[in-house]
User: Fold this.
Amino acid sequence: MPAKNTTRLVLAAESLDTAQGRDALAQAAEVLRSGGTVAFPTETVYGLGANALDGQAVEKIFIGKGRPAWDPLIVHVSDLAMLGRVAASVPDRARKLIDAFWPGPLTLLLPKRDAIPGIVTAGRALMGVRMPAHPVARALIAAAGVPLAAPSANRFGHTSPTTAQHVLDDLDGRIDLLLDGGPTWCGVESTVVEPGEESVLLYRPGAISIEQIETVCGPVKTYAKEENLKSSLMATSLPSPGVGIRHYAPKASLVPVEVTPGEEIQDHAKWLQAIQDHSSRGLRVGVMLPASWPLPQAFPGLRFEWGEWENDRELAQRLFAGLRALDAMGAELILCPLPSERGLGAAIRDRLLKGARKE
Assistant:
């Protein structure tokens, strides 16, 4: 059952070794060992964790989020010894990726051990697993002494949380405890890949880019196009975390605006036209506004100052916060330009396109 009250404890990375920090960590670890749920910061977004070895505890994640059982979770470990407790094998290509990107925002699909209950993987033999880079996340897993199954700490399908307040906005009273570690620094979820014998299969673009992965272990292939997902997957379990057709959606209708990066005059013309077209519909329009991008004269709508268009790290870090801010301002429709598919732009595009899908 959902918790009656959610306890909020402040635990910044720099306070882990203080008496207050150790006490907060001990409280959170005890909740997890007792079968409860704890939201905690990672470098990507806030996660909602439960003991990954305890099926009943993991079920509370699905109840709290309203998440369907066909959508698998990611297992988080604190070190390689814990990885050995949950993964039945680690192929050579996976070890190369671990050496290059762990701790960090890269999730690997690996064969699971029997200790991981089927509810974690939606009945699949492969398990998504990663070692987070955030000091609070690593310290929490180590203190609990168990791997944590943890999706993002938001209601299912909603915009992901990058601050503790975002978590409470969605889940207050539905989870046991929240560790407030401040804003996350990546802002988009981990990249999810399956390291095969000949190539890497990408299921979800994320904070580690395709280009970075290819420098380590060769070509990256992309999982089946979304048009195949609706017919072939929704009736059964998804093959990986992060491939659901509609996720990351704000309350307002989200309208991505396709532009051509590098063509500034053309980009701005398309942008202004899209704003004018949608503003004329009588809706309260909000815009995710890159720095130095224009607005129509006497624009009556809402704006969120998104960041420098050429800085995909800044855009990624502020993406979900911006969508939530515009929701809070009362936007009925949100316009957002789509960056290129290079680097973190691929992850940003993925989140915006999925957030814009209709039910």
Observations:
- Confidence is low (pLDDT under 50) at residues 231-235.
